From TrEMBL:
It is found in: Cytoplasm. GO terms for molecular function: ATP binding; phosphoribosyl-AMP cyclohydrolase activity; phosphoribosyl-ATP diphosphatase activity. Residues 1-124 are annotated as: Phosphoribosyl-AMP cyclohydrolase. It catalyses: 1-(5-phospho-beta-D-ribosyl)-5'-AMP + H2O = 1-(5-phospho-beta-D-ribosyl)-5-[(5-phospho-beta-D-ribosylamino)methylideneamino]imidazole-4-carboxamide; 1-(5-phospho-beta-D-ribosyl)-ATP + H2O = 1-(5-phospho-beta-D-ribosyl)-5'-AMP + diphosphate + H(+). This is Histidine biosynthesis bifunctional protein HisIE. Keywords: Amino-acid biosynthesis, ATP-binding, Cytoplasm, Histidine biosynthesis, Hydrolase, Multifunctional enzyme, Nucleotide-binding. InterPro entries: His_synth_HisIE, HisE, PRib-ATP_PPHydrolase-like, PRib_AMP_CycHydrolase_dom, PRib_AMP_CycHydrolase_sf. It comes from Asticcacaulis biprosthecium C19.
Length: 214
Protein backbone atom coordinates (compact mmCIF):
# COMPACT_ATOMS: atom_id res chain seq x y z
CA UNK A 1 0.00 0.00 0.00
CA UNK A 2 1.42 3.39 -0.99
CA UNK A 3 2.23 5.79 1.80
CA UNK A 4 0.27 9.03 1.87
CA UNK A 5 1.89 12.33 2.83
CA UNK A 6 0.16 15.59 3.61
CA UNK A 7 1.57 18.17 1.20
CA UNK A 8 1.02 21.94 1.09
CA UNK A 9 -0.71 23.44 -1.95
CA UNK A 10 0.19 21.02 -4.78
CA UNK A 11 0.24 22.66 -8.20
CA UNK A 12 -2.58 22.23 -10.70
CA UNK A 13 -2.68 23.10 -14.39
CA UNK A 14 -4.25 26.44 -13.49
CA UNK A 15 -1.16 27.30 -11.42
CA UNK A 16 1.35 26.99 -14.26
CA UNK A 17 1.25 30.72 -14.99
CA UNK A 18 2.54 31.35 -11.45
CA UNK A 19 5.89 29.73 -12.25
CA UNK A 20 8.58 32.19 -13.34
CA UNK A 21 9.93 30.40 -16.43
CA UNK A 22 11.22 33.66 -17.94
CA UNK A 23 13.70 34.13 -15.09
CA UNK A 24 15.84 31.24 -16.36
CA UNK A 25 15.32 31.46 -20.09
CA UNK A 26 12.13 29.42 -20.22
CA UNK A 27 13.26 26.46 -18.09
CA UNK A 28 13.07 25.82 -14.35
CA UNK A 29 14.87 23.12 -12.32
CA UNK A 30 12.65 20.15 -11.45
CA UNK A 31 13.90 18.14 -8.47
CA UNK A 32 12.34 14.68 -8.32
CA UNK A 33 11.80 12.94 -4.97
CA UNK A 34 10.31 9.53 -4.28
CA UNK A 35 6.78 10.21 -3.02
CA UNK A 36 7.07 7.61 -0.26
CA UNK A 37 10.70 7.62 0.89
CA UNK A 38 11.43 11.26 -0.08
CA UNK A 39 14.73 10.05 -1.54
CA UNK A 40 16.09 12.48 -4.15
CA UNK A 41 15.93 10.63 -7.47
CA UNK A 42 17.10 13.07 -10.12
CA UNK A 43 17.23 16.63 -11.39
CA UNK A 44 15.68 17.68 -14.69
CA UNK A 45 14.31 20.81 -16.31
CA UNK A 46 10.80 21.80 -17.31
CA UNK A 47 9.28 24.49 -19.47
CA UNK A 48 5.60 25.38 -19.22
CA UNK A 49 4.60 22.68 -21.70
CA UNK A 50 6.54 20.00 -19.84
CA UNK A 51 4.90 20.96 -16.54
CA UNK A 52 1.47 20.96 -18.19
CA UNK A 53 2.10 17.51 -19.70
CA UNK A 54 3.29 16.23 -16.33
CA UNK A 55 0.18 17.44 -14.53
CA UNK A 56 -2.28 16.23 -17.16
CA UNK A 57 -0.59 12.95 -18.12
CA UNK A 58 0.21 11.83 -14.58
CA UNK A 59 3.75 10.88 -15.61
CA UNK A 60 6.80 13.10 -15.31
CA UNK A 61 7.76 14.95 -18.49
CA UNK A 62 10.87 17.09 -18.81
CA UNK A 63 12.28 19.42 -21.43
CA UNK A 64 15.41 17.75 -22.74
CA UNK A 65 18.12 20.29 -23.45
CA UNK A 66 20.11 17.76 -25.50
CA UNK A 67 17.12 16.62 -27.58
CA UNK A 68 15.61 20.12 -27.67
CA UNK A 69 12.11 18.76 -27.11
CA UNK A 70 9.74 17.42 -24.47
CA UNK A 71 10.92 14.12 -23.04
CA UNK A 72 8.75 11.79 -20.99
CA UNK A 73 10.90 9.95 -18.48
CA UNK A 74 10.92 6.28 -19.49
CA UNK A 75 9.57 6.81 -23.02
CA UNK A 76 12.10 4.29 -24.36
CA UNK A 77 13.17 2.33 -21.25
CA UNK A 78 9.70 2.01 -19.72
CA UNK A 79 11.10 3.25 -16.40
CA UNK A 80 8.50 5.96 -15.94
CA UNK A 81 7.94 8.29 -12.99
CA UNK A 82 4.29 8.19 -11.92
CA UNK A 83 3.30 11.61 -10.61
CA UNK A 84 2.06 12.17 -7.09
CA UNK A 85 2.31 15.95 -6.59
CA UNK A 86 4.25 18.98 -7.79
CA UNK A 87 5.21 21.82 -5.44
CA UNK A 88 6.68 25.23 -6.24
CA UNK A 89 9.50 26.76 -4.21
CA UNK A 90 9.14 30.07 -2.35
CA UNK A 91 10.30 32.15 -5.36
CA UNK A 92 8.20 30.10 -7.79
CA UNK A 93 11.19 29.55 -10.07
CA UNK A 94 11.82 25.87 -9.29
CA UNK A 95 9.57 22.86 -8.73
CA UNK A 96 9.69 19.80 -6.52
CA UNK A 97 8.16 16.73 -8.17
CA UNK A 98 7.03 13.86 -5.95
CA UNK A 99 6.68 10.68 -7.95
CA UNK A 100 6.80 6.90 -7.69
CA UNK A 101 9.34 5.28 -10.02
CA UNK A 102 8.45 2.18 -11.99
CA UNK A 103 11.92 0.74 -12.32
CA UNK A 104 15.28 2.47 -11.84
CA UNK A 105 15.37 6.22 -12.27
CA UNK A 106 18.95 6.64 -13.44
CA UNK A 107 20.19 5.54 -16.88
CA UNK A 108 22.82 3.54 -14.96
CA UNK A 109 19.91 1.42 -13.64
CA UNK A 110 20.16 2.67 -10.07
CA UNK A 111 17.32 4.03 -7.93
CA UNK A 112 18.82 7.51 -7.73
CA UNK A 113 21.06 9.52 -10.04
CA UNK A 114 22.92 10.63 -6.91
CA UNK A 115 24.38 7.21 -6.16
CA UNK A 116 22.17 6.15 -3.25
CA UNK A 117 20.45 2.85 -3.98
CA UNK A 118 18.22 2.97 -0.90
CA UNK A 119 16.59 5.94 0.78
CA UNK A 120 18.83 7.50 3.44
CA UNK A 121 17.84 8.13 7.03
CA UNK A 122 14.26 7.67 8.17
CA UNK A 123 13.15 7.41 4.54
CA UNK A 124 14.38 3.80 4.60
CA UNK A 125 11.25 2.93 6.61
CA UNK A 126 9.10 3.51 3.52
CA UNK A 127 11.51 1.35 1.51
CA UNK A 128 11.22 -1.34 4.19
CA UNK A 129 7.41 -1.21 3.93
CA UNK A 130 7.71 -1.85 0.18
CA UNK A 131 10.04 -4.80 0.75
CA UNK A 132 7.71 -6.23 3.41
CA UNK A 133 4.74 -5.99 1.03
CA UNK A 134 6.67 -7.74 -1.74
CA UNK A 135 7.89 -10.55 0.50
CA UNK A 136 4.46 -11.12 2.02
CA UNK A 137 3.24 -12.42 -1.32
CA UNK A 138 5.94 -15.01 -2.02
CA UNK A 139 6.00 -18.61 -0.84
CA UNK A 140 6.18 -19.02 2.97
CA UNK A 141 9.02 -21.45 2.33
CA UNK A 142 11.10 -18.59 0.92
CA UNK A 143 10.34 -15.72 3.28
CA UNK A 144 10.01 -15.17 7.03
CA UNK A 145 7.62 -12.30 6.27
CA UNK A 146 5.37 -14.62 4.25
CA UNK A 147 5.44 -17.24 7.02
CA UNK A 148 4.50 -14.61 9.57
CA UNK A 149 1.64 -13.37 7.39
CA UNK A 150 0.45 -16.96 6.94
CA UNK A 151 0.14 -17.31 10.74
CA UNK A 152 -2.34 -14.43 10.88
CA UNK A 153 -2.79 -11.06 12.52
CA UNK A 154 -2.82 -12.39 16.11
CA UNK A 155 0.65 -13.90 15.73
CA UNK A 156 1.98 -10.74 14.07
CA UNK A 157 0.60 -8.60 16.90
CA UNK A 158 2.12 -10.99 19.44
CA UNK A 159 5.53 -10.60 17.79
CA UNK A 160 5.26 -6.81 17.98
CA UNK A 161 4.53 -7.13 21.70
CA UNK A 162 7.46 -9.47 22.23
CA UNK A 163 9.86 -7.24 20.31
CA UNK A 164 8.58 -4.17 22.17
CA UNK A 165 9.33 -5.84 25.51
CA UNK A 166 12.77 -6.96 24.35
CA UNK A 167 13.52 -3.44 23.15
CA UNK A 168 12.45 -2.00 26.50
CA UNK A 169 14.63 -4.50 28.41
CA UNK A 170 17.61 -3.74 26.15
CA UNK A 171 17.03 -0.04 26.69
CA UNK A 172 17.07 -0.51 30.43
CA UNK A 173 19.97 -2.93 30.85
CA UNK A 174 21.57 -3.84 27.52
CA UNK A 175 24.42 -2.24 25.62
CA UNK A 176 23.78 -0.01 22.63
CA UNK A 177 24.33 -2.79 20.07
CA UNK A 178 21.64 -4.88 21.75
CA UNK A 179 19.28 -1.92 21.92
CA UNK A 180 19.83 -1.10 18.23
CA UNK A 181 19.23 -4.71 17.17
CA UNK A 182 16.07 -5.09 19.26
CA UNK A 183 14.74 -1.75 18.01
CA UNK A 184 15.37 -2.89 14.42
CA UNK A 185 13.39 -6.08 15.08
CA UNK A 186 10.57 -4.00 16.57
CA UNK A 187 10.40 -1.63 13.59
CA UNK A 188 10.41 -4.54 11.15
CA UNK A 189 7.58 -6.37 12.91
CA UNK A 190 5.63 -3.11 13.27
CA UNK A 191 5.94 -2.65 9.49
CA UNK A 192 4.51 -6.14 8.99
CA UNK A 193 1.62 -5.43 11.38
CA UNK A 194 0.72 -2.17 9.63
CA UNK A 195 0.88 -3.86 6.23
CA UNK A 196 -1.29 -6.73 7.47
CA UNK A 197 -3.89 -4.18 8.57
CA UNK A 198 -3.70 -2.59 5.06
CA UNK A 199 -2.17 0.65 6.29
CA UNK A 200 1.31 2.09 6.75
CA UNK A 201 3.40 4.67 8.54
CA UNK A 202 1.84 7.59 6.65
CA UNK A 203 -1.21 8.01 8.93
CA UNK A 204 0.99 7.48 12.01
CA UNK A 205 3.35 10.24 10.88
CA UNK A 206 0.39 12.51 10.16
CA UNK A 207 -0.78 12.08 13.77
CA UNK A 208 2.69 12.85 15.11
CA UNK A 209 2.95 15.88 12.82
CA UNK A 210 -0.41 17.17 14.05
CA UNK A 211 0.56 16.66 17.69
CA UNK A 212 3.79 18.58 17.29
CA UNK A 213 2.80 21.50 15.10
CA UNK A 214 5.05 24.51 15.51
Amino acid sequence: MAEQHTLPNPLTVDDITRIDFAKSGGLVPAIVQHADTLQVLMLGYMNADALRETLTRGQVVFYSRSKDRLWRKGETSGDVLVLDHVLADCDEDAVLVLARPEGPTCHTKTTSCFGMENAPGIGFMAHLAKVVTERAHVSPADSYTARLMHKGIAKIAQKVGEEGLETALAGRAGDLDELHNEAADLLYHLSVLLMARETGLGPVLDILRERHKG
